[in-house]
Design a protein that fits this description.
- By secondary structure, the chain is an alpha+beta fold.
- The protein has 2 domains: 3-127, Ribosomal protein L10, N-terminal RNA-binding domain (Alpha-Beta Plaits), CATH 3.30.70.1730; 128-171.
- The chain contains 6 helices and 5 strands; from the N terminus they run H-E-H-E-H-E-H-E-E-H-H.
- The chain has helices at residues 3-19, 33-44, 55-62, 87-100, 118-125, 130-170; strands at 22-27, 48-52, 79-83, 105-111, 114-116.
- Strand 4 and strand 5 form a beta hairpin.
- Helix 1 (3-19) crosses helix 3.
- It is elongated and about 100 Å long.
- The relative contact order is 0.14.
């Protein structure tokens, strides 16, 4: 690889590390090209990426980014999964593929700027997706107004029942 190509790769990867909300590092030893392509396609369908980059270039790209804290993961064959919107979805997809193909070993990652171990990534993967979390939040925020509406309706209904009973009693 020529020097200008290396510079381009480093700057491109550094930009991706800056924008990324989640980065997961994997060891892809034992995976053939077809299996890596299946992984890339499954990630791509969710607007995620999987890159295989030389360790020296990845270390240079990590400088000045949140990924710099875990530069020690750049040894041996390393694949990098990158997600820009929902880090939980990234972790779920990579771990899901890791369960179906045991050759893919997850080393760790960076989620929302914080370094994560494999155990932390497994915990994150158990979280509901962003959309589900937003729906849960909307439900929690809507609950008090629903209770108030039911309470006012119940009070009004009881008042009407009392008036009907009074009317029947008088007639």
């Amino acid at each position: 690889m020529r020097k200008d190509e290396k510079t381009r790769v480093v700057s491109e990867l550094q930009g991706k590390f800056q924008k990324a909300k989640g980065v997961v590092f994997t060891d892809y030893r034992g995976l053939n090209v077809e299996e890596i392509t299946v992984l890339r396609n499954s990630l791509r369908s969710s607007a995620l990426e999987y890159k295989v980059v030389k360790n020296t270039l990845a270390k240079r790209a990590a400088e000045g980014t949140p990924v710099e804290a875990v530069k020690d993961h750049f040894s041996g064959p390393v694949g990098i999964a990158i997600g820009y919107d929902d880090p939980v979805l990234l972790v779920k997809k990579v771990l899901e593929y890791g369960r179906t193909n045991e050759k893919l070993q997850i080393r760790g990652g960076v989620i929302e700027g914080g370094a994560c171990t494999l155990q932390a990534l497994k915990t994150i993967s158990e979280l509901p997706s962003r959309e589900v979390q937003l729906a849960m939040l909307a439900g929690v925020m809507q609950a008090p107004s629903n209770k108030l509406a039911r309470l006012l309706n119940a009070t009004l209904a009881q008042f009407i029942y009392a008036m009907e009973a009074l009317k029947k009693k008088k007639s």
